[in-house]
Amino acid sequence: QVQLVEAGGGLVQPGGSQRLSCVASGLVFSGYAMGWFRQAPGKERELVAAINWNGQSTYSADSVKGRFTISRDNAKNAVYLQMNSLKPEDTAVYYCAAGWPGALATEPKSYNYWGQGTQVTITS
């Protein structure tokens, strides 16, 4: 059974930083592309960042470019999202997702497995 478990959400002040992690089990992690999506209340789920199977290709949405960084550690079956200079509009539930094959993927339909999500709230 495939599981993706996110961690690291919480309350953060504007301008602060937070690191999300997602640990995968039940799949050959190194063969999968990984993505971080988010969904704010009343809005559609959107891709924040994605990374291919070996970490050599990444994508960041324009809204987070220069502030968020995605990375992965295949030895630990983990993907991370480092979030800096956080803004109130970054408030959302953040989901990690795994997609096969492992090429960089930007469409939700390319992802086969999803985590339960972790809430990130930016507030003063």
Describe this structure in words.
- This protein is mainly beta and 124 residues long.
- The chain is built from no helices and eleven strands.
- Strands 2, 4, 5, 6, 9, 10 and 11 form a seven-stranded mixed β-sheet that branches. A four-stranded antiparallel β-sheet has the order 1-3-8-7, with no helix packed on it.
- Strand 7 and strand 8 (78-83) form a beta hairpin.
Which helices and strands appear, and what pairs or packs with what?
Layout: E1 3-7, E2 10-12, E3 18-25, E4 33-39, E5 46-51, E6 58-60, E7 68-73, E8 78-83, E9 92-99, E10 113-114, E11 118-122
Number of helices: 0
Helix share, percent: under 10%
- What is the succession of H and E elements? EEEEEEEEEEE
Which runs of at least 5 residues are low in confidence (pLDDT < 50)?
none
Radius of gyration: 13 Å
Task: Give the termini distance in whole angstroms.
Answer: 40 Å
Biggest pleated-sheet summary: 7 strands, mixed
Summed up, what is this model?
This protein has about 120 residues and is mainly β.
List key phrases describing it:
globular; mainly beta; 124 residues; 11 strands
